[in-house]
Amino acid sequence: MLGLILLMVAVHAIRISLPDETDVTVLLLLAFIPSRYAGEAMLLPGGYLACVTSFVTYTVVHGGWLHLLVNCLWMLAFGSAVARRIGDQRFLLFSAFAGVAGALVHLMLHFGEQAPMIGASAAISGQMAGALRFVFRARPGAYGPGMGRDLTATPLASLSQTLTDPRILLFLAIWVVLNVSFGLSALPIMGVPSGSGVAWEAHIGGFLFGLFCFGFFDRPPEPAPPREEIE
């Protein structure tokens, strides 16, 4: 997970060091732009290749340092639990697919539009959904007093268990309302550049992927080590 955060920071640091015209070209090359798929692929940087790569590359581009910082903090909050449970390689693959799912939902609802979509929020939404499948089931001090919650030994909740847990339902209700409210109104959201829209549909697409597909990336829980007996 740390590698992904460093990649996002590096991409933004490189972009702000470039001349404005070059930065715009890089942005258009990496961003997810629905009009690519409506006959404008060759009019944009990257051509037809970007029609494929931008499904993932848009997740490492951000509109400013605050936008990047907010996403990094959300990834630390939810992605760290997922990465610890399934390992770095599966975490990166899972995050990439969540980003693709978010882009597909955005494409279906905004086909042909020219506004570029950037940011890791769809991937992070998938990480959040994956984390909800196990974090509430972790027992405090699973390996002994004072050792916190062990997330690798926690059984994965089924979809029915997840969607009937009152704590999770409350969290989901608040999250969905906030996303739709910011997406459909002119209210500013922390980290999003002024004048930019919030791609809330992509967030929900990434979240639904994480909720329904996390089990395919999960690893069997690690058995707890035997407790030492002191005589």
Describe the protein's architecture and organization.
This protein has helices spanning 2-17, 20-30, 47-57, 65-86, 88-109, 121-132, 159-162, 166-184, 200-217. Helix content is 58%, strand content 0%. 35% of the residues are buried. It is globular and about 55 Å long. It has 231 residues and is an all-alpha fold. The protein has 9 helices and no strands.
Features:
mainly alpha, 231 residues, single chain
Number of helices: 9
Unreliable spans: 141-148, 186-195
Strand runs, count:
0
Largest sheet: none
Order of helices and strands: HHHHHHHHH
Mean residue pLDDT: 85
Work out the radius of gyration: 19 Å
Residue share in β-strands: under 5%
State the helical fraction. Answer: 55-70%
Shape: globular
The chain-level structural class is mainly alpha
Q: Measure the end-to-end span.
A: 42 Å
Summarize the structure.
By secondary structure, the protein is mainly alpha-helical. The protein is built from nine helices and no strands. The model is unreliable at 141-148 and 186-195 (pLDDT under 50).
Write the layout of secondary structure elements.
Blueprint: H1 2-17, H2 20-30, H3 47-57, H4 65-86, H5 88-109, H6 121-132, H7 159-162, H8 166-184, H9 200-217
